[in-house]
Amino acid sequence: MLRTLETLLCIAFLGGALVAAGWLFTLPSEINTVDLNYLAYSALLTLDRDGWLQKVAFSFPDEPAWNEFATTLSAMLPAKIVYNLTLYCFSEGGIMVLKSISNANWDAIKSDVSSAGVVSSNATFSVTPEKIGERGGGVTLYLLNCSDANGWWITCHTGQSIAEELYTLLSPYFKTVIFVQNTLELENLLNGTKISGSPDENVTNAVIINTFGEAVPIPSGYYASSGVGYDLEHTSYARYFHTLGNRTRQYNWTWVSIVGFPLFYVTNTVLFANDHNGWGIYGMKQVGLTGTVNPGLNAFLQGMDGQNYTYSTTSTVSNAGVVYLSSSALDYGNYYGLFPMPYATATRALSSTVLNTYNLTSAFNVFNVGNSYPGSVFRNIQSGAFYPLGLSRVPDSRLTALGLLGYYKPQIYATIYTAANTTRTFVLQLKLVGGGS
Amino acid sequence: MHLEIDHVVSVGIFLAVILLVTGQVCDRLEMARLYDEKKQVTATLNRVLDYLLLNPGVPVDWGTSDSTPTFFGLQDPEGTNYWLSGWSVARLSTSESIYYPKTGKFYGNVGINEKCAWHLAVSSQVNYSTVMDLLGLRGDYDMYVSVRPAVAVSINKTQDNPLAFSVKVTSEGGTLSSITVYFSLIESHRGAVYPTIVISYGVGVTDEKGEASTVFSVDGSALDYALTVYTPSLGLEGRGVFIHSTDDENYPVPLVESISNGEVILAHSQDINYVGMPRTINYAAAFYLVASDYTLRPMPEETGSLQPGGSFGELINAPLSPGILVVAYQTSAMGGGVVLMPWGFTQLGFETTFGVNASDKIWSATDMRYAQCGNGASYIIQITLWRVG
């Protein structure tokens, strides 16, 4: 008898445990597999075709557009899904509910939500790019716009027209942009002297774009003199480029060559009034002897790397043929709204051997790199940077801008709507009825 | 002795109860396992559905090319968010097919009826196993994809003379009232040799039942015609088709050889169906583009003849943009009709399914999204997914 009682007691315990477990361990009768968040989002996007959400959002709450909207929304959603749609207005006074419609007695419990913002057609917006180096005093952009210089391989352009194009493209990203109007101002710049009255001008860390193609303006006087700008032994102005490289290193400049063979000629319409480049363009002189490899580029790279000047005719460029924009360049092109042709012909691509010889690293490749660098920003291990675009003429200013922006990577700050009460947001809540969670 | 019996009975009852409780607990554990599995399937489904609709695949224009995609997606490459590419959907393999002996090929068969269908060469279709491979689901999951219009348009002819129609516009949640309905009546007028295509238009508005009607001032009793209907409502747009022919045994069948090259051939129906008395078909065919005001803009017309057992006709004016192929035909003094083919699948509100039938799957997950097409049509894409193995 005692054992029967023990057994019954045990059964009672087990039964109780089973009932308790059943009570605690309940599963939903049905699993809702429909993702209501995304369903709501796709519904709002579908309704937004042809800008209908905008029209409804900015119509008066009692206008027929709302009735049509409510009818369409009700008809659109499956019968077992009920909705609650609320239109919010954002203003300086805060968030305000403008209209709310629903097709059921709505309680927000267990609903899923999605939202879509609309902007009035009256709204205007602006973007504010970050100024390059603004957290460190700003980087000054110098555009060579010398009136006493001529260009080569800038077919269909002048140095001045390219300077204007580049100003349009790049001025939003620089705190100070200064046109170098003549070779005298260039001389001051080489001396480390400011050339404008702008308090924000900063010679150090500047970007200098040579808009004259294969020709580089040279100041007459000191910088054209023997041992500084002129190599008496080789009767060549390659020495000037060595000095230029030195200054690039000294002031941590980024020197940009926009097309062709970098640093191939020197130009000064007064100094070389009776000289021409071999193709009938006066005011210009080739730094190497005709038929030899250009020593100007080597001299510049020597100077930038702190090496002594040597008249070197070692070949540093090659023909890379048709080259294509790198994936990074395409990404940055989308980001900055620059859309140059995705391919180009690079007959003066920089040889990869220069990286070791002159302690350079490629910091940003505009074009895909093979055996040579058709367009890359090179950074010296110590100081200074060099951006040669070894493409065939005609120059494309967008590529110049793209390389610099990809190198410095200034941010594009968030859009700012300039008109008040122009942003409204639809919030669509969906709930499954008749079972499910 | 009495004590021993008492003991044995107690132990017996105890063991019985233990077995009962263990069974109950196992049932609940199994339910929990299935519940967890379904949650996992649901998560996979949500991911797959968004993946399909938010990326166009690679190459992005695989829908309009003849290549097999290396990544799979159904988004319109020219759209954003939930934009469905009608061309990519058009390349999905279909459960039904027809065989045309003149080319020795099978063609997919999807559409409203035999005179309003989409027949793409099976060799140009993307099959289910390829899609499952590209999605990384093969061997673990099976799925069933339904691509259907978000707005259903049913059309009824209410009288012949004058020719009148009523339409009913419905969606998932009910009828659509106060919607403008655009009608395009495509008539085939029989001529001495070839028929001519004449198009007239009508407009109506749906009432609270979602119904609208229109009347065309023609006698439809002996007329060959097709009616297309467009129902734009905010962002929700539906399409419908109604076809009336006086010869249902002989008609041209448009077969799509290649979307990228715009290769469309016209086969004689007798070479595919072998039903009824074979007759020669004379046809006039033209692609039409649908303008924003829902009028039809013709491309250059082409005419030709099809003999039963003879060679097929070739159409050369397929446009790059989506449109509708209209083929008017006549087979004798009293017989003829109109054949329509959407050039871009979603043009005429077609629906299709893709994958493995899910009707007997208990533990499956189903999810859906709304999407719009570049031509304005609104669609619902629903996928049912379940584990295999």
Q: Quick summary of this structure?
A:
The complex is a heterodimer of chains A (437) and B (389). In chain A, 28% of the residues lie in helices and 24% in strands. Chain A is α/β, with parallel strands linked by helices and 437 residues long.
Walk me through this protein's architecture.
The complex is a heterodimer of chains A (437) and B (389). With 437 residues, chain A is α/β, with parallel strands linked by helices. Chain A has helices at residues 2-24, 36-47, 52-57, 64-76, 159-170, 183-190, 238-250, 296-304, 327-336, 353-357, 397-408; strands at 81-91, 94-102, 112-119, 125-129, 140-144, 176-180, 207-210, 215-217, 254-257, 265-267, 284-286, 317-318, 321-324, 343-346, 349-351, 360-365, 372-373, 376-380, 385-388, 412-417, 423-432. Chain A has 11 helices and 21 strands. Chain A has a 7-stranded mixed beta sheet. In chain A, helix 5 (159-170) links the parallel strand 5 and strand 6. Chain B has 3 helices and 25 strands. Chain B has helices at 2-53, 86-90, 128-135; strands at residues 83-84, 97-100, 105-108, 110-113, 116-118, 141-149, 151-159, 163-171, 174-175, 180-189, 196-205, 211-216, 224-233, 236-244, 252-258, 263-268, 281-290, 296-298, 302-306, 313-315, 323-332, 335-343, 352-355, 364-373, 378-387. Chain B starts with a helix and ends with a strand. At the A-B interface, helix 1, helix 2 and helix 4 of A face helix 1, strand 9 and strand 24 of B.
